[in-house]
Write the structure tokens for this entry.
Amino acid sequence: MTFSTFRTGFISALALAASFGMAEAKTDIVVGMQLEPPHLDPTSAAAGAIDSVLYANVFEGLTRFASDGSIIAGLAKSWDISDDGLTYTFQLNEGVKFHDGTDMNAEDVKFSLDRARAEDSQNAQKALFAGIASVDVVDPATVKVTLSAPNGAFLFNMAWGDAVIVAPESIENIKQAPVGTGAFKFSNWVQGDRIELAKNDGYWGTPAKLDKVTFKFIADPTAAFAAVMAEDVNVFSGFPAPENLAQFGADARFQVLVGSTEGETILSTNNKMPPFDNVKVREALAHAINRQEIIDGAMFGYGTPIGTHFAPHNPDYVDLTAQSAYDPELAKKLLAEAGFADGFKTTLKLPPPSYARRGGEIIAAQLRAVGIETEISNLEWAQWLEEVFKGKDFGLTIVSHTEPADINIYARPDYYFQYDSAAFQGLMADLNNATDPAKRSEILKAAQKMIADEYVNGYLFQLAALSVANAKVKGLWANAPTQATDLTAVYWEE
């Protein structure tokens, strides 16, 4: 062997090794999701798909949810609470910049909270901010929030995606070009296809390990399966075809993550629309439903039956499933007592997720068996938000409420299912004023029992967090304590 041949071979080997190293040190990722956001402002819409893309990745709040559901520091590095529980003084992290290069300071916090609680606010969770009496800038790194009454859930409320900090300079175009402070910045949105994020090189905190993130929207479960199997997507968050999970689990290329969510999946009922304004009709509805059949048929066994609007993994959960046990004969009897011995017709409007479309067919058959005929309409997400959530034009619908610990929505008479109970509203007022953990637990248990007793909605199951990913992807959340696909600590194993 001549020296030149050896040297050439050695250099080729080095080049090959370097190329392998580059392949192993992958820094981009494609994440599949079933639902595309209607727009990109988490502070003015109820669609969970917005937070699924942007929470923690692009936008941050004063506090935030950790993967275990605990509340940790966010843009606020610390806070002091006055002895009377009315004043929260937040110390902000310094040197934080928005993605457009402008400084994030106390003025932006004041702008964000004042905007969220304003009379003309479009915030879907405006009630989170109702107890704020004033927001005052102490200095650029300090903001003082004064409440009208003590609220033991205030730091929890500030962790919601609806409470992220935004800037007045970029608010006009936020729905199409969001500007936040997170570890990733918005790069591109090809509507109907994908959203792209890029690493924020100027991030104030621990930098992201990925350079590029692409969220790919694939609504059809069969197409989702094909995309993951072909490795066109590296992660599919909220995988819509649970029947395929065993196949992925048996394939060494993939990992299957099965965790819990905050998603109470309910047969939501329009409480002001006859005949659902009659509690006996709502009770009949509850007893006509076979939860396990829905879980098995729509979710292939993934899901936990619930009897009220509360997550079973929460320490304050009360198991009330027996109160609305499957009993079609009792359902018929209750309908007769309510004056509907021959049944009635109503609408069942279904959003795109598989649990709704598949579950809706099963529920329609169960209701038909007791004399309730449903006219099924399959709606796109934007249609559902406009027609059902905003317009309240529905009899029944199926949706998973994935906001954390959100039983307080039952205290809003104008909320889409239109439950109006002064007694329940009083319970939530007491909860807001309570800071003692034992007292809060007692109130939460009473609240669960009250809505179960009044059969406000048909309580089906707690949605499981089902994700499939490349086996080499690390740092993903298994559980979903909020609506998020947090990629800030995700990386590829070398």
